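QA checklist item 7 of 12: single-chain prediction sanity check.
[x] sequence parsed
[x] length recorded as 119
[x] structure emitted
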Amino acid sequence: MRQYSLVFMEQRIGVPRLTSIPGPEGEKCFEAADDDVALAYACEHFQAQIKNCVRAELSSMAMVRDPSGSGARLVDDSLENPHFQEAYIRYDARSQRIEVDFVSTVTGILPGTYKRSSG
């Protein structure tokens, strides 16, 4: 079993990027056997919260409480699960379905963009 974190994001006026919903309602942690089970669990058990935010970010990184009590932070444990891709989960009000988008962390070189220096 692995630890998964689901962070609910909102768009605040005047802030150029999405921010996590403050407080305990802005984050959920749970265990799942693998990434597919975690995704299914998140969509099934947190549907109401997903509907009420801009998007939810599913990560296999562990959520650890800050000892000072000021919040939580994600601990990068990606070496334990190098094939995980972060997933963005959002509710599409038009189709009334939950959609999932995966964020690839793969970097590549496009053909024709690399020039060998002559010398």
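[x] summary fact logged: The longest strand covers residues 2-10.
[ ] second reviewer sign-off
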